Amino acid sequence: AFYKRRSSSGSWSTAELVSTDSTDSLQQIAIDVDNQGNPSIVWTDQTNVGDLGGADYDIFYNNLTIATSTWLGMTLVSTESDLGSYDPDVEVSENGDIHVVWYDYSDLGSGTDKDIFYKIPRCNYCCLDINVTGF
Predict the structure, then answer these.
(1) pTM score
(2) Mean pLDDT value across the chain
(3) pLDDT per residue over 64-117, tens digit each?
(4) DSSP bridge partners of 13
(5) Whole-angstrom distance, CA of residue 45 vs CA of residue 127
(6) What are phi and psi of 23, to 5 degrees?
(7) Which pLDDT score is estimated for 126?
């Protein structure tokens, strides 16, 4: 996945690679921007990054700090998942918390049907996938 931004003057930045460690199929990209213009990007990817994620589709995240032009790095979000994870969405709250939601087939106590999962990837008080509901 690549990222470009357009300045207020109308010029486009150079394309930047977001999925730096991806070697397989990726899809279903979503983006949100915080109040300082820093983009948070999530996507579904089949890459097995350093034994993270396995061969199924997982949810990955990357974030750009505009002030330093520094990317966080490709980060696995669906760490507890052992089956396919799909259709991620991301929202950055006014206080900067990043919220990621997706559906997943993993059986974390609710069967292998589709369940909705939620995670805040970069905070100190939440680090587990939360199975919101089954459908």
Answers:
(1) 0.83
(2) 83
(3) 999 999 999 888 888 877 788 999 999 999 988 899 999 988 777 766 678 888
(4) none
(5) 20
(6) -125, 5
(7) 43
State both tokens at 34. Answer: 């915080």
Buried b (16+ CB within 10 A) or exposed e, 51-86: eebeebbbbbbbbbeeeeeebeebbbbbeebbebbb
Note the Cα 3 to chain centre separation in Å: 14
Smallest Cα–Cα separation from 44: which of 105, 92, 135, 113? 105
**Pairing between β-strand 70-71 and β-strand 39-45 as defined by DSSP bridges:** unpaired
Confidence bin at 53 (pLDDT 50/70/90): low
State phi, psi for 79 to the nearest 5 degrees: -65, -35
Residue type, 2: F
Residues 6+ apart with CB under 8 A from 89: 30, 42, 100, 101, 102
For residue 40, how many other CB atoms are within 10 A of its CB?
23
Hey, where are the domains in the chain? 19-134
CA distance 72 to 54: 21
Task: Note the maximum CA span of the chain.
Answer: 52
